[in-house]
Amino acid sequence: MSRVICPNCGQLTASAREISGYQYRESGLDNVWLVGGVTKTQCTNCAMGSIRITREPQLLQVIALDLLMRPGPRTGPELRFLRRACGLSQAELASLLKSRRRETIAEREGKKTTGLNFAEEIGLRWVLVQAFHDYVTRSGNSALEGRDLEKLWSFAVLFRDFAAKTTMDRQRTERITARVRQNAWTVETKRSQAA
Q1: Are residues 48 and 121 in the same domain?
Q2: pTM of the model
Q3: How confident is the model over 170-177, as a mean pLDDT?
Q4: DSSP assignment, residue 74?
């Protein structure tokens, strides 16, 4: 422990210590744990304590990048975290999704699961990837290291291709052919391109 100036009262009466494992609830996510980079300060003068996270803006963007790249659907709290990491309000995200009301975004963020089907999840993820990319490329917004920016660019290209292929696959229709054999109908299903 070392003596430091208290961020609350400004006196040299606080002690600071590194915390090795810290549940980062301030992020809005219950499943984020930090190993290193966290300092706890406690003041003997004003009895106030505080937590300081090293390079917190970078940490938040690294978490957002991980959530964008992680497979599977997002939870409501993860959706809220990503929307904020993109610098978007609920109304702005609803507008980007073109068919959502702000209240719908608020409802989805408040639930454990967003309740989106596969196609909606792909659409939402693509909008968030684009919005995050746009946000971090604006002057003064990126706290990411070069390697993380490279990850984002690569993932954006891969996800764009995946979303395009998935959309193409979803645009296919299934042709149903019913055939009568020995006075009984059977159905054959074949995938074909939509006309």
Answers
A1: no
A2: 0.78
A3: 56
A4: P
